[in-house]
């Protein structure tokens, strides 16, 4: 059996990855901050799918914890065949809000620094074995300019492609996942009101994950779910920059004021 390590595995997209990979017969290493919740998720996955699920409690805003997870990825006696760099959280603060600085720093630690360290650890270990897959969860917001979240996810997108190029020819593939609006508790936790969004923009988390895993198996550098988000990303990447800035400005106005 292959083994997948998933960060942020107890909720949202990370939990959807855990359920889908377990259903496909993969053993898991699941990573999150809450040990009790991790154990609960692990027990359900073991019971439902008969796979081995290892629990690894870590706060990815804490460097020592990140290094422990990196050490697990580089343990060649217990090889990890897939890394899903998923842990993260939403940001809905103005770039001018001084009281949000600590939150922005934590976001950079979890969604940039930890991704860099864990991706490097997985890449080294997997390339030594000549096989493996890395999936980095970025966002469609990487194509626009709305607050620090867009900035962070633009970094994650660029990093993922850069890592894919460095690992080309090693047998290790890297796929950046660029989801749009996914039906999870993510937005509520970030204090983002999504109640006015039309139904057609939403993506089911399980559908998202299945499509991403299929894309990763094909060695695609980026995975963008559904035709509507592929179109949105094409417009964001290649459409008029003035239009992009206009849309980004409208979205930014919904953020908390300084």
TrEMBL record:
Keywords: Oxidoreductase. One of its GO terms (cellular component) is membrane. CDD domains: SDR_c. One of its GO terms (molecular function) is oxidoreductase activity. Transmembrane segments: none annotated. The keyword Transmembrane does not apply. PANTHER family: DEHYDROGENASE/REDUCTASE SDR FAMILY MEMBER 7B, SHORT-CHAIN DEHYDROGENASE-RELATED. Belongs to the short-chain dehydrogenases/reductases (SDR) family. This is SDR family NAD(P)-dependent oxidoreductase. It comes from Tessaracoccus rhinocerotis.
């Amino acid at each position: 059996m292959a083994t997948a390590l998933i960060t942020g595995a107890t909720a949202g997209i990370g939990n959807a990855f855990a359920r889908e990979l377990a259903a496909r017969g993969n053993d898991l290493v699941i990573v999150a901050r809450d040990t009790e919740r991790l154990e609960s998720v692990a027990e359900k996955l073991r019971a439902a799918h008969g796979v081995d699920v290892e629990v690894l409690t870590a706060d990815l805003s804490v460097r020592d914890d990140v290094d422990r997870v990196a050490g697990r990825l580089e343990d060649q006696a217990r090889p990890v065949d897939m890394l899903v760099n998923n842990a993260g959280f939403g940001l809905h603060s103005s770039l001018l809000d001084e009281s949000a600085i600590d939150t922005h720093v934590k976001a950079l630690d979890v969604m940039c620094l930890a991704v860099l360290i864990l991706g490097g650890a997985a890449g080294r270990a997997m390339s030594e074995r000549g096989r493996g897959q890395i999936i980095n969860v970025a966002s469609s917001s990487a194509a626009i300019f709305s607050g620090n979240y867009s900035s962070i996810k633009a970094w994650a997108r660029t990093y993922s492609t850069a890592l894919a190029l460095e690992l080309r020819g090693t047998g290790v593939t890297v796929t950046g996942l660029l989801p749009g609006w996914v039906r999870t508790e993510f937005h509520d936790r970030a204090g983002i009101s999504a109640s006015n969004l039309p139904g057609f923009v939403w993506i089911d988390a399980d559908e998202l994950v299945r499509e991403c895993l299929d894309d990763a198996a094909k060695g695609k550098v980026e995975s963008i779910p559904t035709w509507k988000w592929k179109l949105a990303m094409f417009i964001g990447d290649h459409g008029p920059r003035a239009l992009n800035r206009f849309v980004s400005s409208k979205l930014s106005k919904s953020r908390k004021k300084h």
